[in-house]
């Protein structure tokens, strides 16, 4: 896949609803071109096919999540505060991009077979979150867990599934869903991770 200019990337999100509704297997490249307003020749210049378009959309979404979560994790504050801000940041990005999230749900099996996404996820989210969990033990706001890597994966999975559920089941109530879900996720995660008396 070639480097995709920002203007083209923004247009591709116009096809996310189509991909979410039909699935990438049933969406025709002509339909993706029509929905995005990008000529077919341009799509083929940047992508080898529909699979790469899906991979780009998911990778771009992941990059947005990583940027916002990274900024939240690097704010001054205790580890537990930064963990809460990271949860809020990921949920916000997901609910701001409902069509891309719906496309992810529809093609989750296909998405999990994209090794570059797994690699990006590891460096963008899992490793920083593992570090944050260790810092929480040092500053006394989080308890030690046996395997910070698996704990980081569990945190990401919890937020991701909650966010995906909101974009699929509650799109018209995204703002209230986000607040309620962030609170529920944080209560579960943070109370479960607090040091035990």
Write out the CATH superfamily name: Tetracycline Repressor, domain 2
Number of helices: 11
CATH hierarchy: architecture:
Orthogonal Bundle
The H-and-E topology, N to C, reads as HHHHHHHHHHH
Distance from first to last alpha carbon: 52 Å
Cα radius of gyration in angstroms: 18 Å
- Count of folded domains: 1
Oligomeric state of this protein: single chain
**Residue runs with pLDDT of under 50 for 5 or more positions:** none
Helix coverage percent: over 70%
Strand content: under 5%
> What is the CATH class designation?
Mainly Alpha
Structural class: mainly alpha
Task: Give a quick summary of the entry.
This protein has 197 residues and is mainly α.
Topology:
Blueprint (H helix, E strand, L loop, with lengths): L5 H7 L3 H7 L6 H8 L3 H7 L3 H24 L5 H18 L1 H9 L1 H4 L3 H25 L8 H22 L4 H20 L4
Q: What would you note in describing this structure?
A:
It is a single chain. Helix 6 runs antiparallel to helix 9 (115-139), helix 6 runs parallel beside helix 10 (148-169) and helix 7 packs across helix 10. This protein is mainly α and 197 residues long. It has helices at residues 6-12, 16-22, 29-36, 40-46, 50-73, 79-96, 98-106, 108-111, 115-139, 148-169, 174-193. It is 77% helix and 0% strand. The longest helix is centred in the middle third of the chain and has 25 residues, at 115-139. It has one domain (54-193): Tetracycline Repressor, domain 2 (Orthogonal Bundle), CATH 1.10.357.10. One of its GO terms (molecular function) is DNA-binding transcription factor activity.
